[in-house]
Amino acid sequence: MSANANLKPDFLPMWFWDFDYDKIDWQASYKTIIARIIERSDETEWAALLRFYGRSKVLNALKSEIPYLHDYAIDDVSKYFSIPKEEMLCYVRRQIRPGSQSFL
Fold first, then answer.
1. Would the pTM of this model clear 0.90, i.e. be above it?
2. What is the distance between the alpha carbons of residues 69 and 17, in angstroms, rounded to a whole number?
3. Distance between CA 4 and CA 101 in Å, rounded?
4. CA triple 49-88-80, angle to 5 deg
5. H helices of the chain, where?
6. Measuring CA to CA, how many Å separate 42 from each of 28, 48, 99, 100?
7. pLDDT tens digit sequence for 20-75
8. What whole-number distance in Å separates Cα of residue 35 and Cα of residue 68?
9. CA distances from 15 to 32, 57, 69, 82 (A)
10. In a 3-state reduction of DSSP, which class is residue 38?
11. Can you tell me the distance from the alpha carbon of 48 to that of 11, in angstroms, rounded to the nearest whole number?
């Protein structure tokens, strides 16, 4: 099931301490939200991510739209979703720019 503009996901508000949780635009901010949940939470929250956005949208974001994830998150994503690291934009960017911590 993919989300619509009126629905809120079942994420713990603590993951969004720096946002006004009730004012988050869950659709427009999906890349930031997916990256945040992937980097800071566990597989329980990852399952909520899949329920809310759908597997296709999450995988597309991880493969083509999210430019940066920490190394541990790249490894975890690769294992959990069974996708090669080389298919992830953040991993490819890391190989092109070794040592870079750029969020661009």
1. no
2. 19
3. 33
4. 45
5. 30-40, 43-53, 55-60, 71-81, 89-96
6. 23, 10, 26, 25
7. 999 999 999 999 999 999 999 999 999 999 999 999 999 999 999 999 999 999 99
8. 8
9. 11, 20, 16, 25
10. helix
11. 7
CB 27 within 8 A of CB 15: no
Q: How far apart are CA 46 and CA 1, in angstroms?
A: 15
Tokens 């597997």 sit on residue: 55
Residue 86 is classified by DSSP as G
Tokens 């980097």 correspond to 39
Query: Three-state DSSP class for 32?
Result: helix
Q: 78-86: long-range contacts (C-beta < 8 A, 24 or more apart)?
A: 80/43, 80/46, 83/59
Between CA 77 and CA 12 the distance in angstroms is 20
Residue written as tokens 């690291």? 85
